[in-house]
């Protein structure tokens, strides 16, 4: 299903190679976190997987298919951004159903899928509100709901909680993990926050200047950081 393989994938912007060729596999159902300092290439890597940027070289393989030439909307992935990108004039119900209306799905089917998504996100009481009448956390849940209704092979999150205050972030982390437990869908989560990475990930991918410094479970990285950068970044005692 949602197995994502990168083979010698690189990205240049003009003459500048922001991601030298790298290999990476995200297993089906895994919760993977890309972590690293600002500017290290996390968003670029996610956008390459999503197809929002073209890779300069290499292959991206999703669910066994090479998707290099496949447009974003046909890759079976759903991206959740830090800016909520909700339509202010539409109700929550309309916002969540929006991608399905674009696909011309019939209304009864849309309603059923919106209701299922709203239930799994505890949004059923808010379906008739507009985004302006919601808290930051609720708005973020609506954005996630809009991803869920498409039943993607994988969810790609780019720093989805960075607009929320600290207390709300903790709660939203739990909600995203709960969603992962329910859906068992592959998730890739980008953050510059070490704590978020260490508490959420099955697999952490540590990036520095476009290079993967280490891939492993939080415990593996904590116990055996490969170098001083990883040790320093994740706060290992070494
Ligand atoms: P992160 O998400 O880890 O903060 P980004 O992936 O946004 O990092 O950026 C990685 C590097 O690529 C940075 O040096 C950034 O300036 C550069 N970059 C990102 N997008 C573009 C673009 N569209 N054109 C030129 N350079 C870019
Ligand atoms: Mg970024």
TrEMBL record:
It comes from the Bacteria. The keyword Cytoplasm does not apply. The keyword Transmembrane does not apply. GO terms for cellular component: ATP-binding cassette (ABC) transporter complex, substrate-binding subunit-containing; maltose transport complex. Residues 4-234 form the ABC transporter domain. GO terms for molecular function: ABC-type maltose transporter activity; ATP binding; ATP hydrolysis activity. Keywords: ATP-binding, Nucleotide-binding, Transport. Belongs to the ABC transporter superfamily. This is ABC sorbitol/mannitol transporter, ATPase subunit. It comes from Yoonia vestfoldensis SKA53. The chain holds residues 1 to 238 of 334 of the full protein.
